[in-house]
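Worked example 2:
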Amino acid sequence: ILAKLLDQGREGACPGPDPSLNGFVDFRDFFMDPEEAAASGARGDERYGNLGTWAKDLIDDKLSSSNEDGLLAINDVLIGPVTKSLFGAEGSVLLSGTVVELSKDQVDEDSIWAAFADSARLQLSNVHLEGLNSIRQPLILLQPSASSPYVIDNQMNLGPVLASVDLGIFVGDNKSPLSMSNELNLRVDLPSIDLLLSLLAAFDESRVLNFPLNDILEWSCWLSAISEPGRMELSKAAAGLALHRVGLTLSGAVTASSSCVLCTSSWLEKLDPTLLDFLNSNNVIGDFAERAMSIASDLLESAWFQGLIDEQIAAASTRCPHDPSYGLEISDTVAPSFRATRDLVDSVLYIGMAVVEVIAVGVAKEHAEVDVPQQVVELQMDVPKDANLIDLTDLSSVADWVDVALEEGRDYLGKVSENGVLGINNLLSSSLLDDEDGTLTIQLEDIGFESGGVKLTMLEVSLIGLDSFTQIDALRAVDPRTLRSQFSLGRLGCEVTMGLSVEGEEDEHAEQVRMLQRSGLETVTISLVLADVEVDLSLLLALDQDLLGSLQLGSILSTGNIFYCFLSTLHDVGLSEFVMKVGDIEEFQLVGFVSKETDLAIKAMTQAILDEFEPMILASMPSFTAVTVRSVLDGILAKLLDQGREGACPGPDPSLNGFVDFRDFFMDPEEAAASGARGDERYGNLGTWAKDLIDDKLSSSNEDGLLAINDVLIGPVTKSLFGAEGSVLLSGTVVELSKDQVDEDSIWAAFADSARLQLSNVHLEGLNSIRQPLILLQPSASSPYVIDNQMNLGPVLASVDLGIFVGDNKSPLSMSNELNLRVDLPSIDLLLSLLAAFDESRVLNFPLNDILEWSCWLSAISEPGRMELSKAAAGLALHRVGLTLSGAVTASSSCVLCTSSWLEKLDPTLLDFLNSNNVIGDFAERAMSIASDLLESAWFQGLIDEQIAAASTRCPHDPSYGLEISDTVAPSFRATRDLVDSVLYIGMAVVEVIAVGVAKEHAEVDVPQQVVELQMDVPKDANLIDLTDLSSVADWVDVALEEGRDYLGKVSENGVLGINNLLSSSLLDDEDGTLTIQLEDIGFESGGVKLTMLEVSLIGLDSFTQIDALRAVDPRTLRSQFSLGRLGCEVTMGLSVEGEEDEHAEQVRMLQRSGLETVTISLVLADVEVDLSLLLALDQDLLGSLQLGSILSTGNIFYCFLSTLHDVGLSEFVMKVGDIEEFQLVGFVSKETDLAIKAMTQAILDEFEPMILASMPSFTAVTVRSVLDGILAKLLD
């Protein structure tokens, strides 16, 4: 029978595969009975025979049988052999090598972060599963799915299972100060796992049916029988083999353990197992495991894992012996790279927080057994023998003021300010910290990781609590090389904000992630805040004075260079002490990105660890910082020092040799480019940082509205320059108008030989009272070389010394009065546009040694004429100045040195009166306008240009230092018309104030009842005329004199008094009855102002109402008494101003062409009564010897008559006045000034005229008589 059967077998009784089957294997027809297959939608025609059905029945019946331990037969029959074949051990899976890696391969060597580590890597590798051959019921295998003919469902329970993974943390190479290479094996024991697996497999019917039994155990051949990806339209992107659905769930208590594979951090070797027991007991490990199951499911269903399957399928045909492609090379395929899911990153963050906390506990336990060093660490300094090191205990070698400034700075930082806040808190809050939360935020760039579709970018680091200092003693030199700082803070912390994006597979968060990515931001923040912090640190510095002084400004204009440039001036640096004590851990948390469940889990874990271990962590902090952190920071300093020496501090850019464009210097690149500049950050970001500091921090205000700039900048600078905070003092003469020498032959020499008006010692106080609005260093839209500034300040005190000097001590009107005038200005608005053409090369190469040398800054400015700018091609100019006042302005005065006694007694009520009538306010407004004009004038520009021209010879680093420069002729001071206009206004006010002051003084003086007895200087042999008996001169003289007196005092036929007729017909002008005296060569010329006395007119000499003249009361005295209806004087002057172009310029030029622009000052008194006695020692011989030719010119008669006198004196002069009819100034002044003068004069007369009139008799009898007597003596000489 066997032989017969063998023949039949040879003759075709064993059929070949059905050639018509060339589709894909339908698992329903393969594993189900025909009826069941047809019922489920398949053909049910037993096209694949019944072996598959038999095998399925075998699995369901036989492989599902269990032993006494509940383990199913499938473990020994299938799982054990397969896993041993694939991974070398029964029931085990090992994914060797790196599975997940987040790395930063190379930190930019120019970045400050390179000092800490040049690379960083976080790695998960060697994923290991054991116990997969522990399958228990329920077991479902190879169950065709109702959802697809190509999907089979599988379900099983297995356990216990051991899962382990190697966690690698690698930082830097062995040169990095934070270098570490730690690989830790983490092991988790899983009691029970429920696995659900739906497998999609597109087997090619032809390949399966033609599969030779010789290769039945060749895994590659089975894979080659599967359709290659893309050949059919299935799910999973047309995959040939895919994990269609995966489910993993845990039950039972999960436990964990750890061990070092290779650890360079010793504390990891000593990781306390009780901590893991603690984590186990708090279900942290169980939570990890559940997350791991979920992540594993996601990974197995991911495109990345599908790519691994597709790679195996693509290569399978070349590895299968019966495949035509066996042994051929296949083209490289690009499989999808690993793409992390959001859930994976969520759990990594959870694990990361746990790892950090575990590390903290481990480190704390190690250091809790270490004592804090009682002495600072002795560090060896590597310093050249010839180094010029700065003695930190005596900084006067740097500059005389540095020690004092440092001590003042320490004192300010450590004292409580007026607002009840420590100085350092005020300083940091106003200059560096955010106004809202008091943090210091540092923006970061190009720092992060990108791997597996996860992009993690460091956005910013915020330091918390820098406004909570409770005590500080900073930078105190304890020896020539060591600075020690001790301080305490209420809280101190750090907050790291990162941008995180995950380009993972579609999940419930996908749409949210895409939206966040489009906005460019999904943040995660990790923060640690400590409370009640005390720090004690000592820094060892070998700081070279020459290297520090030679640092160039261009090297530090980028703030990122400042640190390294400072390090480049050090020969060595070390941290010899660093101890930190902490009272409490206020906060340690992660916010953002993670799910609500993860957030709650992290908080619960953190709180549990703190409850258990916080006391130990706090107790270990001093030793941890003193031993480990100090050593790490010292190593970091050494690394940073090396980088500073190796060129991390760049030199200035040699290609920049034009002029500094303020837009590029002070604006952000985008803003600068938009305004027309280059916008390439050519000057770094220090200027931008400083501008932002001014705009944000220096502009913050206290409760009084005063800005921080007052304390931070204005106060210290003005104290440094002028000796007092907020004050400016321009010592010496500022403006001077003078007539140095009057012609001695002139009649005016009888009054005074010289006259001088002087303004000096301009003093401003209260400049540190700046309020909003504040605009500083704002590049102008009009020019790249102009910066605009605007501020409001007040109250401000302005004072000036006004000097009035007339003649020497021989002059009859001699006076030397210096009066301090003080004005209180409630509020000033200042607008200042400054044009400055700084040479780029000079600024960038500016050495720090000369940073406080004003001349060096001026030498960096282009000399006038070198470039085409406004202001006559100036290198530095006040481009535009505006000064305006608001509020009620008040004034006061005091004598500095006054020879005129009445000034000492100047009634303060007069100034109060002027204040109340807004005279002072008007003065102040004019002063502001004049100041603006002066600051914009060619004269002031000339002063600036002189300083610039000389600056290079005064700047130590300039090649021209010490050389002599040729004399330059700067423009002389040229007064403007507005200045002269206001001077006339002020002059009128001063005259009126003087009049009131003199009147008040004389109102208390009685009029002398007797004439003054004067001593006559007469030779003994002089032949004097007896004025009571003139017959000695001629018999008719007495009669003629009496007739003359009678004529003068009687009313003539025309009804007019004789003297009026006589004067009108002989001396006075026919039209107005004045006596006009033409003057020549009398005047002043200074500052472009020419003042010429043209004429003096006596008014009212035709208004006598009574006269008794030249009546001899004794042999030497003639007395006259007369009354006039009015008596006055009018002085007419010619005035020209060669000032700058202004609104009056054309008018001035026209008047100058005609040779006349006049200003007239007039005083007219009404109802005047005069009583005077003249003492004459008249020599009859001298009078008789006068020759006719000497007196033929009427101008000579007066002096010729004086030549016949041996002496002359005014022994009595009393004048009473009924009214002041007129006191005014006409001509030259503007309409506004004219109205202001009239209003001021009228107000003063309304208030003080009665007192002035009452004081007139005593004033004339005492003061005027004395002055006139002196004038007569001068005239006699």
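The two ends are 180 Å apart (CA to CA). The CA atoms of residues 119 and 172 lie 5 Å apart.
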